[in-house]
Amino acid sequence: MSEFQGVVPAIATPMTSDGVFNEAVFRQVVEFNIQAGVHGFWVAGGTGESVLLDDAENRQIAEAVADQGQGRVKNIMHVGAPTTKRAAKLAEHAAKVGVDALCCVPPFFYRRGIEDIVEHYRVVAAAADIPLFVYNLPGATGVEITPDMMKKIQDGVPQLQGLKHSAPSFANVRIFSKMGLDCFIGSNRLMLPAMTVGACGCVDGPLNVFPELWVAIWEAYQADDLAAAVEAQDRATSAFEVLSSCGGSFHAWVKAGLSERLGVDCGDPRPPGQPLSEAQRGALREALETLDLVTTSVG
Amino acid sequence: MSEFQGVVPAIATPMTSDGVFNEAVFRQVVEFNIQAGVHGFWVAGGTGESVLLDDAENRQIAEAVADQGQGRVKNIMHVGAPTTKRAAKLAEHAAKVGVDALCCVPPFFYRRGIEDIVEHYRVVAAAADIPLFVYNLPGATGVEITPDMMKKIQDGVPQLQGLKHSAPSFANVRIFSKMGLDCFIGSNRLMLPAMTVGACGCVDGPLNVFPELWVAIWEAYQADDLAAAVEAQDRATSAFEVLSSCGGSFHAWVKAGLSERLGVDCGDPRPPGQPLSEAQRGALREALETLDLVTTSVG
Amino acid sequence: MSEFQGVVPAIATPMTSDGVFNEAVFRQVVEFNIQAGVHGFWVAGGTGESVLLDDAENRQIAEAVADQGQGRVKNIMHVGAPTTKRAAKLAEHAAKVGVDALCCVPPFFYRRGIEDIVEHYRVVAAAADIPLFVYNLPGATGVEITPDMMKKIQDGVPQLQGLKHSAPSFANVRIFSKMGLDCFIGSNRLMLPAMTVGACGCVDGPLNVFPELWVAIWEAYQADDLAAAVEAQDRATSAFEVLSSCGGSFHAWVKAGLSERLGVDCGDPRPPGQPLSEAQRGALREALETLDLVTTSVG
Amino acid sequence: MSEFQGVVPAIATPMTSDGVFNEAVFRQVVEFNIQAGVHGFWVAGGTGESVLLDDAENRQIAEAVADQGQGRVKNIMHVGAPTTKRAAKLAEHAAKVGVDALCCVPPFFYRRGIEDIVEHYRVVAAAADIPLFVYNLPGATGVEITPDMMKKIQDGVPQLQGLKHSAPSFANVRIFSKMGLDCFIGSNRLMLPAMTVGACGCVDGPLNVFPELWVAIWEAYQADDLAAAVEAQDRATSAFEVLSSCGGSFHAWVKAGLSERLGVDCGDPRPPGQPLSEAQRGALREALETLDLVTTSVG
Questions:
Q1: B108 contact residues in C (CB cutoff 8 A)
Q2: Which residues contact D213 (CB under 8 A, 6 or more apart)?
């Protein structure tokens, strides 16, 4: 197994009350997660409001995460963009400032043939020459990377290292793994099941709110303790379900959950994302108290 | 956990060369699987060519499987039909001849609202008064039973015991299980992962060709042996992949695989299903030889 | 243009209060429609509860429609069934009793490859040797017949005459028509637009409740009167929208609408189809009164 | 009917060989289309490579199209962007430089609830206070605006004027029109059929290559000449089919078709879009010659 594995939170992008990237709080979230035992970060990806950030913000985030980590974890930086040129420039910068790998959604908005997708990845990866992860996120991009398509990417992009698999075709986890790829499952609820069929770990947003819950799954699995792994996954999923049922959008409750738990202000989602209502915020606070499984802070 | 659990092959419906149900060979397949350690059967379901059978055949199959099993395994008889009346009559008969439970697809062809689906299940279950399993098979029926819909079925149908979940929404396995339902995963490749999030076992067609491979998963899981369970699932999935890659339709290669492995003639799929070509049959024979993991016969 | 064209109601299958086919009332509905100027019938199809009927009922309906029509209209009899054998037997019978053409859904429930679909149609059509219409109804069958697939059916089935196109791909109407097929549009709301790109007419259930509204579209179109055709389509669609908004399932309100309008009892849908509630029935009665565009009876 | 109607080409965004917006050639394409009798333009939309353009380019294009038109046609400027802020700024600018209306895709990449979509449109429209068109393009955005959703937009956004409907639900054209919206059909092949059920015209990319073909449909329709309209639509669709069958992506052949027809160089699609291969370019040249229906230049 490669060095890319384990619990890899898709980290949020905290904002100030003016809607600007809040680097200080971002570094606190990074540090909190490292202290909790995570193995890496998926940075400025889906949870990190990716395509809502401008390129200068993406660059600042890459610098901050690399600097804060100081080699303690593996940072996988998202560089997806509507044009190949913009994605390649972000990739070049990210590699220069010391992230460990890139991740990139396939071209989105317009539907592209696989040849165009391969060429996009080839150019982006060549601009950086560090390992590349495909971000298989059909719910956002409109295209699901199938094993056949991935084979063509693998043939055309020497830097291909793996993928985050956030698609309904769960059985493809095993197929991607057997292709020699590091396959992170993109759903926090499926970390354990995915690992039993070859996944190398999990990348998802809720992990950066409660990293210790998924670290527990990882540790039980490494210890070959099936019963403990099953119990740890059950607790983690329960925490996710409680929080996500408080209402509001994914970005809103992830940021609010982090704010409450760390005692910082991660800000609101960037519009068109909307903040939690007061009622939703109250429900979330209550939910956090109920989850006494998580009252012991990690950091 | 209830008495319905474990390795429950979706058993094929062998036919004579005239295309008539071959009870003698069917009993041989049943016996072979019981000897291999399976815990029950899913009878005349998707693998068993269900809606291609006429009602007299369905009744004969119910009688045969109950008689052959003699209480050694749990038989779950499929009684789905286009009309509620036909399904209810099949249910009544099945209970009379001694099967242990019913399974039933929701109404198909015409799209129905959930109220109509609940009423269908209520009438069918009331005709038998033995446990009922919902067959969640959107690829065939066009309707996916979601947790919300299942809650309404649970409220309206006292006999509801569980389901076979053959839908892409893998994360629903846990939700159905937490509802107190026996949730069998409907994919042979996902038995182990599904069990780690609450599934009570697996129902699928390939299991009746190589029952020992899935029995091995079950036994490793019961022994809390994670590494062995992972390895057993990997071997089972490999066997499935080898066979299914020989070409031909699912029914064709399941029947051919059984015929080759047991040295009997299970016949061809009922048209519009088509038999394997000679080349496909040859490839399947070769594949079976290659899989020396399965050369030791069970029966 | 062939002899198959124009306004071809998908006729309901009236039932007695015991749920048995009501031939006397069926003949009244046929006669009412013929008097209103329709050009044919689509019999025992989707509106006619097709796969909910048993084979004896299908045969009785074929006999009744052929006998009642006495050559005045073109009767297209549905013979789709889960197995090829059953469909072929129904086809053979239908041709014998004098219907003018067959229609048949592709194999449903199990997903079939195009080769299996062609073979199914080949066998069914060969059993009758009268013109055959494909029933392109992906909402019920799970398979959409694309132009490429239709080309293979055309190559393999000499009796292929056309299709009813009830699929979202509206632009395919022109493609099918350019292939030399009689393409009936399967949506009452799209008769006029479809004719402007090659459709030969319309087949749908609401047509048998208000045949004169769609006959008016046909006549305006034949008279090259664009403004009148647009107005006629608008009135027809309005009538459909008013009725369908009264609640209840499609079969329920089509049958109830016919019962109210003709002063007969068409009965209820066969379960799992459910009848209108009293409130829905009342709303439908009121709606019919409101639609004074249709108070002048045709028959 | 409002002033927004008729033949409204979705105009391409010509690029130089360096991949920079080519304003001179853009103005030539605008002028060519105006001379051919079009009624407006859909600018920097799907055909215009919309989200692949940076904001400075979007502003330059808005200025150029307003200046070139000089009030002769209605210019509808696309201002969709991943964030509400960017879209609103583009809207503000577009209104200032004199375009006649805005169009805007709903938020894309992340799936948003209808409340968030309404708020997005409200803010964008308020920044400009000129008429707004919704761009219903689920193939690119992942969200189909249904009539129910549109009602909420209509209630929340006073500037709402209409939409471009590029979704499979063809029957919704009538529903949107009855809501008082200007509904442009988004498929060149469906201009005539859509107009018979209420569409106010057509917006699509092929129109800017052969504007006279769709102007002919419009004129026949205004003259109430059904037969001529049917024939004009048939010729227009044939031209589209011939060109689109030469291979290559939509943007590639639209730009190449314009280049060949006008004797200018519209450049290639912006990557990840790929140019035509030499063979595809040759096939397109031959196709243009074959289409002698279009050899008479308009300009």
A1: 108-109
A2: D232, D235, D236, D239, D293, D294
Q: Provide the token pair at D232.
A: 């004009």
Q: What SS3 class is residue D18? A: coil
Quote the pTM value.
Answer: 0.96
In angstroms, the CA A96 to CA A79 distance is 13
> Could you report the per-residue pLDDT of D133-161, keeping only the tens digit for each?
999 999 999 999 999 999 999 999 999 99
Strand partners, B134: B104, B163
Q: pLDDT at position C290, please? A: 86
Q: Note whether D108 contacts A: Cβ–Cβ < 8 A.
A: yes
Does residue B81 lie within any of the structural domains? yes
Residue D198 above 60 pLDDT?
A: yes
Residue length, chain B? 299
- The region, left, alpha or beta by phi > 0 then psi within -120 to 50, assigned to residue B19 is left
And the tokens for C177? 């028509």
Q: Is residue A287 part of a domain?
A: no
Cα D191 to Cα B223: distance, rounded to the nearest angstrom: 67
Strand, coil or helix: what is D9?
A: strand
Predicted ipTM of the assembly: 0.96
Q: For residues B215 and B37, what is the distance between their CA atoms, to the nearest angstrom?
A: 6
| Angle made by CA atoms B203, B205, B210, in degrees to the nearest 5 | 100
Total domains present in chain B = 1
| Chain B nearest C-alpha distance from A75 (Å) | 28
With CA atoms as reference, report the closest residue to B181 among B200, B207, B166, B195: B200
- Is the bond into D131 cis (omega within 30 degrees of 0)? no
In a domain, B219, yes or no: no
Tokens at residue A299, please?
């950091």
Give the distance from residue D236's alpha carbon to the nearest chain A alpha carbon, in angstroms. 24
Gap from A155 CA to chain D (nearest CA, Å): 18
Taking the Cβ of residue C139 and every Cβ of chain B, the question of whether any pair is shorter than 8 Å is answered with: yes
Give the integer Cα–Cα distance in Å for D179 and D169.
Answer: 16
Using CB atoms and an 8 Å cut-off, which of residues 11-70 of chain D contact chain A?
A: 19, 46, 50-52
CB contact under 8 A, D139 and A142: yes
**DSSP string computed for A66-118:** HHHHTTSSEEEEE---SSHHHHHHHHHHHHHTT-SEEEEPPP-SS---HHHHH
d(CA C81, CA C237): 31
Indicate yes or no: CB of D170 within 8 angstroms of CB of C168. yes
Any CB–CB contact under 8 A between D123 and chain A? yes
User: What is the CATH classification number for the domain harbouring A112?
Assistant: 3.20.20.70
Range of the domain at B49: 6-210
Residues D177-189 have a mean pLDDT of 98
B54 within domain boundaries:
yes
The secondary structure of B78-101, three-state, reads ECCCCCHHHHHHHHHHHHHCCCCE
- What CA–CA distance (Å, rounded) separates B249 from B275? 8
Measured in angstroms, the CA of C112 and the nearest CA of chain B are apart by: 8
